[in-house]
Amino acid sequence: MSLDTLFEQLQHPNPHFRDRVMGEIASSGDPEAIPKLMLLLDADDVSLRRSAVRAMGAIGPKAIPVLSRRLADTDDPTIAASCCKGLAQIAVNWREFTFSEETMSLLGDKTLEPNPVVQITAVMALGEMGEKALPMLEHALRGGDLAIALASLNALASMNHASGKVIVENFQDDAGVDIDPMLKEAMRAALDRFTGRPWKG
Predict the structure, then answer these.
(1) What is the rounded radius of gyration, in angstroms, for the C-alpha atoms of the chain?
(2) DSSP readout, 128-174?
(3) Taking CA 185 as the corner, what is the angle to CA 149 and CA 156, rounded to the nearest 5 degrees?
(4) Cα-flanking dihedrals φ and ψ of residue 77, to 5°?
(5) How far, in Å, CA of 84 to CA of 97, rounded?
């Protein structure tokens, strides 16, 4: 089936059918698949955007340069968040792949964006990228935004890396007694989640 036909089938009202079509698109190997998927990252249909993001995750590292360039260039929060989610999906699906410092620094910058959705999706993506993302997560944690600090604590705890635990402990020590009760509880909960099991990339 041609790539154009597959994309036409994305208009089907059944989201599960569209997911199957996205799988075929991702496995097609067609060089036009990534550019066409990029056009869906700001689709009005949320399920269509999500399917495109998952397709990017299935395509893998080949999609990273395009996603990174678009993330760096766009002022549209919907596109930016979709790019962050696409990079996160690649990290989840391709655990052996090591992301470049440039990509992680870009995501680190996006944690400081004014749009909270972009911020949180950038933190989420960094939380899937392993030890090299720890400095960016620490920076986000200490950025002074409560919602981003909470998201960063969750990402660090989910990563379950020994150095991440040190970051949370140091943050707790530096916070002192005059700290938001929600953040205090989040730090306690995060530290409780760290175990002896190393992060698996």
Answers:
(1) 18
(2) TS-GGGHHHHHHHHTSS-HHHHHHHHHHHHHHT-HHHHHHHHHHHHH
(3) 45
(4) -65, -30
(5) 16
Cβ–Cβ < 8 Å for 126, 151: no
- Burial code (b: 16+ CB inside 10 Å, e: under 16) for 9-39 equals bbeeeeeeebeebbeebbeeeeeebbebbbe
- Dist CA 12 CA 19 (whole Å): 10
Do residues 61 and 29 touch, judged by C-beta distance below 8 A? no
Phi, psi of 76 (to 5 degrees): -85, 115
Q: What is the pLDDT of residues 18-51, one digit of tens each?
A: 888 888 998 898 999 999 999 999 999 888 898 8
Helices (H), the chain: 3-8, 15-27, 33-38, 46-59, 64-73, 77-93, 101-110, 116-126, 134-141, 146-159, 162-175, 181-193
Neighbours of 142 (CB within 10 A): 16
Which pLDDT score is estimated for 199?
54
Helix axes 116-126, 134-141, angle to 10 degrees: 140
Contact of 126 with 94, CB cutoff 8 Å = no
pLDDT score recorded for residue 196: 58
Which among 163, 145, 146, 147 has a CA at the least distance from the CA of 199?
163
Name the burial class of residue 200, with classes exposed (0-12), middle (13-18) and buried (19+) by CB atoms within 10 angstroms of its CB.
exposed
